[in-house]
Amino acid sequence: MVSLPDFIRGLPKAELHLHIEGSLEPEQMFEFAKRNAIALPFASVEALRAAYDFANLQDFLDIYYQGADVLRTEADFRDLALAYFHRVAADGARHVELFFDPQTHTARGVPFGVVAEGLLAGMAQAQRQLGVSSKLILCFLRHLDEDAAFATLREAEPWLDRIVGVGLDSSEVGHPPAKFAQVFRAARERGLKLVAHAGEEGPPAYVWEALDLLHVDRIDHGNRALEDDALVQRLVREKLTLTVCPLSNLKLCVVSDLAGHPLKRMLQLGLKATVNADDPAYFGGYLAENWIAVSQALALTREDLIVLAKNSFTGSFLTPDEVAGHLAAIDAYAAAQPAIA
Ligand code: HPA
Ligand code: ZN
Known about the structure:
The chain has 341 residues and is of the alpha/beta class. It has a single domain (4-336), classed as TIM Barrel (Alpha-Beta Barrel). Helix content is 50%, strand content 14%. Strands 1-2-3-4-5-6-7-8 form an 8-stranded parallel sheet, sandwiched between helices. β4 (165-169), α9 and β5 form a beta-alpha-beta unit. The radius of gyration is 19 Å and the shape is globular.
């Protein structure tokens, strides 16, 4: 019999909620700062790590945007992506749909193409060397206005055939999905998939708006949807995937402890929940660590874990044939591992 951590690491799975800038480890931040001759406002890796103490989403975002300043060249973005893929491959990921925040970089004078080409090069290398497939999702920063989002979509035009969809992230409260209805419509007309962070700190009304005004294909986080029974019924009926991030929720005080995390309730309600890392370098764990921590805290069963793994592929933007292949791999794994020690 395998241990729970070994069962989880071996289980074929996808990661659907991962901000690549949030995979920038402190050591790597110092390395990139050195090679780009940038002075960091922290004396050491330890001092930087000690600053990762957040009371809410905004506390985190302030330090996350500051950290991204060391990313300047195509090689930086490629190396950042590759380091992440090595970690997530070891966690048993077979597929990743990763977010990037172009406005964080273009506002500093780093061209969109430098960011996109670097990330795409890392993704191609991960496919070749690690067998991990991936798709790229362009996130609009919701604390900026819709005109800025439109400008970003225009800048992205030459790369849109290599970008699967658009998302919405950054400071949620005070920046409802309604603010981006037009740019999401333009993205939809362009054939892009749509996702949005909603219900992390924001109210259930923001999740309704993401559904009714943005017409999203997935909800990122969605924790606060559970406060509204009619909303839960809608999400269940439409089989909308929620990309849930347990260690992020703990670090950003969305939950006070993992034992009180809503993941088990989401599964019991029939919601299509998945487990993801969000910003692993800042929140204390990559994909498998999220799975292990939340499984232990909530006493998830082997069957729960298999459902979560299947949800990660059925909720992905892979083709039906690709999804079917991954589901068959999960069934084969489950048959070979009939119990957890
Ligand atoms: N929420 C909103 N914006 C973000 C997050 C998050 O968890 N991570 C990176 N940008
Ligand atoms: Zn996120």
